[in-house]
């Protein structure tokens, strides 16, 4: 018997399930809170990394999907459906496969990292792309699920938010209380909404710091971005579905939502991998980029940065700027010469 039962069983008394709810789980959750000593030294605060990239499909989306798909099955749905920049589609497809449900995925054409697309396809989802950004894909799938027997499992589904709030409970369980600041990327804004809901549910009030990419920063600008653009594809969203929830989390916690550049995101992405040994996808690094950029505004106390997805989600970005691997003779002398030793 596995010691960790998955999120629904671990937090059954706090989640909207009954004794008859079919639990669809891949044993998600219970992800590590990793100390980041070099990052801590850099910003002058103890920083810990909530690494949700080790969830079953490699991102935090599994937290909400276990509950959303369980409830869809309980309600007798024929299929689940989503629009996605990648991670949602991977999670929806995996949990739908586990549940024996059809999964329908609508993507923005040309805007999904290869690792995520491969997951959705391999798990058996029916995948199609539409012209335009994520917001166009979401509009299509919202209208489709309103007219057909398929359950929307984007973060507009309240069960997604209910499931994702479990990450806040895990942090409080490990630390014995909330951090002073909790920083995370903001794309569709469901995660910052969920974390704040989770913290409030256990009487905790960290300051919520959210970070958007400069090219996809509608909340920072105060208006939708019609053509969002950023290297961080997971947060390339011009009109967040959970906009109001993100603003509430910021304001009620006395936090901030700011923008960071792609250069800052990539610098943080490389720093995490090369200095802390943690490989996260580029969008994940927005939380770290923001804490570095706004370090002077940090209050006393510790900081948690959420890393939303694994670095293998986006192999193309990992290899940017690197030449092909050189081939040498199979000898010690050739290796020593190549190394310059």
Describe the structure.
- The chain is 41% helix and 15% strand.
- It has helices at 7-10, 37-43, 61-74, 87-99, 114-122, 134-147, 158-164, 166-175, 190-201, 218-221, 243-252, 262-275, 285-293, 315-318, 332-339; strands at 33-35, 47-51, 79-83, 102-108, 126-130, 150-152, 181-185, 207-213, 256-260, 303-307.
- The strands form two sheets. A six-stranded mixed β-sheet has the order 1-2-10-7-8-9, with helices on both faces. A four-stranded parallel β-sheet has the order 5-4-3-6, sandwiched between helices.
- Strand 4, helix 5 (114-122) and strand 5 form a beta-alpha-beta unit.
- The mean pLDDT is 95.
List the helices and strands and how they pair.
Blueprint: H1 7-10, E1 33-35, H2 37-43, E2 47-51, H3 61-74, E3 79-83, H4 87-99, E4 102-108, H5 114-122, E5 126-130, H6 134-147, E6 150-152, H7 158-164, H8 166-175, E7 181-185, H9 190-201, E8 207-213, H10 218-221, H11 243-252, E9 256-260, H12 262-275, H13 285-293, E10 303-307, H14 315-318, H15 332-339
Parallel strand pairs: 2-10, 3-4, 3-6, 4-5, 7-8, 7-10, 8-9
Antiparallel strand pairs: 1-2
């Amino acid at each position: 018997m596995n010691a960790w039962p998955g999120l629904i069983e671990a937090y059954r008394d706090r989640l909207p399930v009954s004794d008859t709810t079919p639990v669809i789980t891949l044993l998600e959750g219970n992800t590590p809170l990793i100390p980041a000593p070099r990052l801590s030294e850099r910003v002058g605060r103890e920083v810990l990394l909530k690494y949700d990239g080790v969830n079953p499909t490699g991102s935090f989306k599994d937290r909400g999907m276990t509950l959303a798909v369980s409830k869809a099955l309980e309600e007798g749905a024929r299929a689940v459906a989503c629009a996605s920049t990648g991670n949602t589609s991977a999670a929806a497809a995996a949990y739908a496969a586990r549940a024996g449900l059809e999964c329908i995925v609508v993507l923005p054409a040309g805007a999904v990292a290869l690792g995520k697309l491969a997951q959705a396809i391999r798990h058996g989802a029916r995948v199609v792309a539409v012209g335009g950004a994520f917001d166009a894909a979401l509009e299509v799938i919202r209208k489709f699920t309103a007219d057909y027997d398929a359950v929307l499992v984007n973060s507009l589904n309240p069960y997604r938010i209910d499931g994702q709030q479990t990450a806040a409970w895990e942090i409080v369980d490990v630390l014995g209380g909330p951090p002073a600041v909790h920083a995370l990327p903001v794309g569709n804004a469901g995660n910052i909404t969920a974390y704040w809901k989770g913290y409030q549910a256990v009487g905790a009030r960290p300051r919520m710091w959210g970070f958007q990419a400069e090219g996809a920063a509608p909340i920072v600008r105060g208006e939708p971005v019609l053509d969002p653009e950023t290297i961080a594809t997971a947060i390339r969203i011009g009109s967040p579905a959970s906009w109001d929830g993100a603003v509430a989390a910021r304001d009620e916690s006395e936090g901030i939502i700011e923008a960071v550049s792609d250069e800052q995101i990539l610098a943080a992405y490389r720093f995490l991998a090369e200095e802390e040994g943690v490989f996260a996808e580029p969008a994940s690094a927005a939380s770290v980029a923001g804490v570095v950029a706004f370090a002077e505004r940090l209050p006393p106390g510790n900081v948690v940065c959420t890393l939303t997805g694994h670095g293998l989600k986006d192999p193309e970005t990992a290899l940017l700027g690197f030449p092909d691997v050189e081939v040498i003779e199979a000898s010690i002398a050739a290796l020593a010469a190549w190394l310059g030793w």
